[in-house]
Amino acid sequence: MRRGTGSLYRRVQSVRFLLGRDRRAVLAFLRATYPVALSWHARVALVARFVGTTNHVRTYHTQAELLRVADRILRLAGRPGLTVVEAGSGKGGSTAKLSLVTRLAGGRLLVFDSFRGIPPNDEVHRNLWGRRVVFRAGAFRGRLPAVRRTVARFGAPEVCEFRKGWFADTMPALDTPIDVALLDVDLLSSTRTCLVHLVPRLRPGGAVFTQDGHLEAVVGLLRDERFWRDEVGVEPPRIRGLGRRKLLEISPA
Question: What's this model's pTM, rounded to 2 decimal places?
Answer without folding.
Answer: 0.91
